[in-house]
Amino acid sequence: MNDVAQSAGVFLAWAMLFLGVLLILAYRRSSLGRSSCVLGILLLAYWALGSFPEWWKVLVSIPYALLLLLNIRPLRLRAVTRPFLRSYRRLLPSMSATEREALDAGTVWWDGELFTGGPDWQKLMSAKVPTLTAEEQAFLDGPCEDLCAMLDDWDITHARADLPPEVWKFIKSQGFFGMIVPRRYGGLEFSAYAHSCVLVKIASRSGTASSTIAVPNSLGPAELLLHYGTEAQKDHFLPRLARGEEVPCFALTGPRAGSDAAAIPDIGVICRGQWQGSEIVGIKLNFSKRYITLAPVATVVGLAFRLFDPDRLMGERTDLGITCALIPRDTPGVTIGRRHFPLNVAFQNGPILGADVFVPIDSIIGGFPLAGQGWRMLVEQLGVCIGGVRAHPPAIQHADRPLRRRRAGLGAHGGAHLHHGCRALGHRGRDRRRRKAVGAVRHVEISRDRIRPHDRQ
Hints:
alpha/beta, Butyryl-CoA Dehydrogenase, subunit A, domain 2, 3 domains, seven-stranded mixed sheet, 18 helices, 7 strands, 14% strand, disordered C terminus
């Protein structure tokens, strides 16, 4: 009985040793060759020191012999890797064209390193930290500071449920809506870092004001126009957006699909119709959008929808795919619904409905050659929008600001002016991380050649 217990103990010890070595090799991600050498040495020790029957030692050596054969790369590819990949691919669903476009769109920054399992932290730490130009700093210390002095968040949220008229006028006249618009179109042409600093500073005083300014400087729709718009569209819209003559919004979110652009039910059909007294080939739109920021006050609507050409008026394809277009608010059939008031936050937000809205083909951002390329546009440019959202202090900080003021004895209706917007984040470390992240955002001139025009056969 003692001999059996002793043999079982020895067997268990060797088994634990083998298992421990295997786990260490896996944790260290050792190469196949190194693992084979280590396991070979361990197996030799087992043969020399183990007191087990010869037939058992031979049986244990068989898996190691197979492991040695896997070191022969052509044999491994032919016998293991390729059969496994074929079986695995049969289990996977096929990739749709929309998913392929999403994978091909845009680029990655250092964050791509995170998915390697061994990120190069030195590359992150050595990334150049952006700085403000003299013009950007002057804007932050001048118009931005003046705007903060005009904002009373209690009055905006609880009394007006809107920005005061003088604040709207100041925002438009000082070019806050044109921070990303190039100077040749009358904009400020600020860097991503300056854009972020402005939003952070204003958000320290009023989340409503910062959200109002953020939308025109993102997908709504200056960003899309800059990268994909035709010259005629840029010349028409960008100066008006920069001067605040046009207040934009971008209608993507819907009541059923949310912000999932690939699943939007809103459609546009290419057909003939009347436009300003003449019959033209245009698009008849039917859509339902909700939670669209600035919709109640917008004068031009950026719209995402799925485009169809059932009569093949523009080519052989009938389903052209997701498309983005610009539509004036006063277009017949466009209705702005009852304003939303989410979370008691007073920024302008509401639904947009469209019933048999007829617009020219030229309303498509980039013109008809970019019909069906809306998904790629959104994927490539949403990163800038997300960066803008990350530039804001967390919503919880905005929500508990009145409580913190009361604790400081400042009262809910007053409080010291938060002069330094970046400090409103509360921690210097957080601001340093923001600077690093925003430094990665580049207003890259994405070539229209990257957008594949649909086949016009």
